[in-house]
């Protein structure tokens, strides 16, 4: 009886020690969940979710402080992916944080720019070049379309332009399956025309 | 002589329909009144326009500059005047527009000064640059810039040069006619290509349904050493680059690698002919041979300037009345043009007039019954039905796992599908969606990196500023302490007093400075005399005096304490 107890206690101590060692030795630095959430977020850094950027929002979601439906640029697809990752119910995009828009980029009307540098300070990804009293311009490939440069501009010379599809970026549409009824309807129409 | 041929798996044998257009000699298309030349004609991006509206151009003058080394130049196909440089619809399945140069032809066909080159005296690098500047791209349909294909890959050298004259797609005969009529041009082009890559042997693969072409090339190549004209079995898609390499050499190129990595490179016969023209004659690529076939009275091949409107070209073949759409490319890999007033490009190898009788629309799509017919015919040895399921369900990760990017979109699977499923449309959708997602992901990663860099920089600047400030105050204190130390040395008994003294002295000095400044301002104000009141009427001067008096009074009032009633 006593030996059995001792053996069990010994095993418990050894296993406990091993677990304790493993928890220190193989400790994962950072929060892998935050990185996973951050990878889904669109990285526009627009702050529409009411956090300072995509990473802070990811941290808030991981802590359970924020809902998954606060990211308008990520849109419905982003919410679905977050719901999948976190095992939560899908929710439609919350209206107070904004609406889903097509991809845009900022464009500076260079004739109106007075070179105040306010937009360069607002840009979260350093996509605006320019110096004090010098004309500013947007580096279009780097612009995330966050709109943060629009309100600070004192002369309203920044506009958001929807990115048009080009031959290079065009993608094939999802194949549309013709329905039988539609075709028969057309046939019927043709017949009608012929008799008329 | 090559004795054994290898074979690729799968493939189909559709009715070839080549006899209709292969019987007639190549004719020259008439010069249209206007040419629309798209700047984007190679797989390597859009060149920058070099001309503006109103400029006169000569035949062969460069109008589009290659952007970087991946791109290829564009030239004026004939002499005339540039009437527009603007966005026009391209002959592309998207129906989107891109920058085009419209030229009003003057009918004179005046060439630029041609500079032929003796290729034997030039280095491969110079020849590659000439090909890039002459706009030579693969004329088989993919329009990949040829100068890029001539660079040796990982293996360091290209031992075997493969010339593709298979032309496996039904209806198309432009390469067949070219081989029959201009075998000597192709032979010279092959000699140049061989010189550039210093290839030991050349294999010319031609499908065995073109005996005249095989005979013509054999005659033209009789003198050359190490050149084999090899008839390959007729089976679609034997003209696919990877398939032809496999049949002729047995080398199977894995995904993500190129033929050059294995010492083989493949060029189309028409490309070889345009290489000859670019080097031996100095003529850039401004025309190509286009097959006109399908539902037409007079099928045939025409040599066409790039930029000729397709509808004008199709009229030469006299399409029949029941033609309901126009297909660019062959029936297997081509696409229906959104409009017919689009220009011929370097990729236009065939224009088919389609009628419901000749090219019946595929029936209604039915569910996949997993019969496996598509797997048997897939030349890339994929499992098309699995790819179809994954693409349809938008399960892109899985589709990639099953090798969707190895798919060459040849259309064999859709050709044999008993359920009429447009398999290739699903693959194209999945592939382009994946490319878009990949592009977005790269952009997002870059944005994240830049954002993190900016945040870190802001943080660093803040700490640096704080450190600077701290250093400054520390230095000030040290100086003060230093002064205190001197005083302390004078009066060591009164250290506390000595520490307070300089501060008090500083205050005294500051007060004195302020007082001096105020005095200076007052004296300046007193010294200022208004200069614009000399030539005024007495009434005005009286008014001014009155105002001044009021000001003095107000100043007096301001000096009295505020709590006293005025």
Please provide a brief summary of the model.
Chain A is built from six helices and four strands, in the order ααααβαβββα.
The CATH topology of one domain in chain A: 3-methyladenine DNA Glycosylase II, Chain A, domain 3
CATH superfamily of one domain in chain B: NADH-ubiquinone oxidoreductase 51kDa subunit
Extended strand count of chain B: 17
The value of Rg of chain A in angstroms is 28 Å
The CATH class of one domain in chain A: Mainly Alpha
Count of DSSP helices of chain A?
Answer: 6
Instruction: Summarize the amount of helix of chain A as a percent range.
Output: 25-40%
Class computed from helices, strands and strand pairing of chain B: alpha/beta
In N-to-C order, the SSE pattern of chain A is HHHHEHEEEH
In the CATH hierarchy, the architecture of one domain in chain A is Orthogonal Bundle
**First-residue to last-residue Cα separation of chain A:** 103 Å
**Major sheet description of chain A:** 2 strands, antiparallel
Can you walk through the features of this model?
The complex is a heterodimer of chains A (196) and B (566). With 196 residues, chain A is mainly alpha-helical. Among the domains of chain A are: 32-97, Electron transport complex subunit B, putative Fe-S cluster (3-methyladenine DNA Glycosylase II, Chain A, domain 3, Orthogonal Bundle), CATH 1.10.15; 104-162, Alpha-Beta Plaits (2-Layer Sandwich). Helices cover 39% and strands 7% of the residues of chain A. In chain A, the strands form two sheets. In chain A, strands 1-4 form a two-stranded antiparallel ribbon. In chain A, β2 (128-129) and β3 form a beta hairpin. In chain A, α2 (32-40) packs across α3 (54-63). Chain A is elongated. In chain B, 41% of the residues are buried. Among the domains of chain B are: 134-281, 3-Layer(aba) Sandwich (Rossmann fold), CATH 3.40.50.11540; 363-488, Fumarate Reductase Iron-sulfur Protein, Chain B, domain 2 (Orthogonal Bundle), CATH 1.10.1060; 491-523. With 566 residues, chain B is an alpha/beta fold. Chain B is built from 16 helices and 17 strands. In chain B, β10, α6 (211-220) and β11 (227-232) form a beta-alpha-beta unit. Chains A and B meet through loops of A and α14 of B.
């Amino acid at each position: 009886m006593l030996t059995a107890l001792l053996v069990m206690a010994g095993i418990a101590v050894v296993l406990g020690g091993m677990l304790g060692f493993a928890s220190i030795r193989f400790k994962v630095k950072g929060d892998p969940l935050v990185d996973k959430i951050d990878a889904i977020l669109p990285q526009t850094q627009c702050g529409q979710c009411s956090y300072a950027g995509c990473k802070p929002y990811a941290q808030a979601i991981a802590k359970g402080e924020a809902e998954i439906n606060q990211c308008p640029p990520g849109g419905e697809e982003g919410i679905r992916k977050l719901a999948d990752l976190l095992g939560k119910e899908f929710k439609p995009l919350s209206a107070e944080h904004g609406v889903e828009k097509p991809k845009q980029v900022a464009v500076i009307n260079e004739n109106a720019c007075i070179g105040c540098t306010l937009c360069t300070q607002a840009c979260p990804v350093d996509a605006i070049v320019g110096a004090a009293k010098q004309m500013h311009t947007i580096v279009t490939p780097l612009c995330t379309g966050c709109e943060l440069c629009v309100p600070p501009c004192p002369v309203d010379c920044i506009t958001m332009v929807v990115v048009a599809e080009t031959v290079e970026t065009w993608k094939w549409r999802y194949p549309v399956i013709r329905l039988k009824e539609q075709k028969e309807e057309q046939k019927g129409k043709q017949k009608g025309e012929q008799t008329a | 002589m090559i004795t054994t041929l290898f074979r690729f798996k799968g493939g189909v044998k559709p009715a070839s329909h080549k006899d209709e257009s292969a019987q007639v000699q190549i004719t020259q298309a008439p010069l249209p009144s206007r040419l629309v030349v798209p700047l984007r004609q190679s797989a390597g991006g859009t060149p920058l326009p070099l001309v503006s509206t109103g400029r006169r151009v000569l035949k062969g003058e460069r109008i589009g500059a290659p952007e970087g080394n991946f791109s290829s130049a564009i030239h004026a196909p004939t002499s005339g005047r540039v009437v527009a440089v603007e966005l026009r619809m391209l002959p592309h399945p998207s129906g989107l527009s891109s920058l085009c140069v419209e030229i009003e032809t003057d009918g004179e066909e005046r060439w630029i000064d041609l500079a032929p080159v003796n290729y034997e005296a030039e280095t491969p690098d110079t020849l590659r640059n000439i090909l890039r500047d002459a706009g030579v791209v693969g004329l088989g349909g993919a329009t990949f810039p040829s100068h890029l294909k001539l660079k040796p890959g990982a293996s360091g050298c290209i031992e075997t040069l493969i010339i593709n004259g298979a032309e496996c797609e039904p209806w198309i005969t432009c390469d067949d006619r070219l081989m029959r009529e201009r075998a000597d041009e192709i032979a010279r082009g092959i000699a140049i290509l061989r010189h550039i890559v210093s290839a030991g042997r050349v294999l010319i693969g031609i499908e065995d349904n073109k005996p005249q072409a095989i005979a013509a090339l054999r005659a033209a190549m009789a003198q050359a050493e190490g050149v084999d004209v090899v008839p390959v079995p007729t089976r679609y898609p034997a003209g696919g680059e990877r398939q032809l390499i496999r049949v002729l050499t047995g080398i199977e190129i894995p995904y993500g690698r190129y033929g050059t990595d294995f010492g083989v490179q493949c060029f189309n016969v028409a490309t070889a002919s345009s290489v000859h023209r670019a080097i031996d004659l100095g003529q850039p690529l401004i025309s190509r041979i286009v097959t006109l076939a399908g539902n037409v009275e007079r099928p045939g091949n025409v040599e066409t300037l790039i930029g000729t409107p397709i509808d004008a070209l199709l009229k030469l073949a006299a399409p029949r009345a029941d033609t309901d759409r126009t297909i660019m490319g062959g029936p297997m890999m081509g696409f229906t043009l959104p409009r017919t007033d689009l220009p011929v490009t370097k990729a236009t190898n065939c224009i088919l007039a389609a009628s419901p009788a000749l090219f019946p629309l595929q029936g209604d799509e039915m569910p996949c019954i997993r019969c496996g017919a598509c797997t048997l015919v897939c030349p890339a040895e994929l499992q098309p039905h699995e790819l179809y399921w994954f693409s349809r369900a938008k399960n892109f990760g899985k589709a990639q796992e099953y090798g969707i990017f190895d798919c060459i979109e040849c259309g064999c699977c859709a050709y044999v599908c008993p359920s009429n499923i447009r398999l290739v449309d699903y693959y194209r959708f999945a592939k382009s969606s994946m490319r878009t997602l990949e592009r977005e992901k790269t952009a997002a990663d870059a944005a994240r990196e830049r954002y993190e860099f900016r945040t870190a920089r802001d943080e660093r600047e803040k700490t640096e500023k704080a450190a600077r400030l701290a250093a400054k105050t520390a230095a000030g204190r040290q100086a003060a302490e230093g002064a205190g130390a001197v005083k302390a040395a004078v009066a060591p008994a009164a250290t506390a007093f000595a520490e307070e003294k300089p501060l008090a002295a500083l205050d005294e000095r500051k007060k004195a400075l302020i007082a001096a400044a105020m005095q200076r301002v007052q004296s300046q104000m007193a010294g200022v005399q208004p200069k614009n009141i000399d030539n005024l009427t007495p009434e005005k001067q009286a008014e001014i005096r009155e105002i001044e008096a009021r000001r003095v009074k107000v100043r007096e009032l301001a000096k009295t304490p505020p709590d006293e009633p005025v």
